[in-house]
Amino acid sequence: MLSSMVKEHQVRQQARKEEQEKRRKEAIQASSSLTHALVDHLNVGVAQAYLNQKRLDSEASQLEQNATNFQRQTSQWLTLVSSFTDSMKEVGHVQNWATTIEADMHTIATALEYAYKVEQQTGSGGGAAT
Question: Which residues are in coiled coils (predicted)?
Answer without folding.
Answer: 46-73
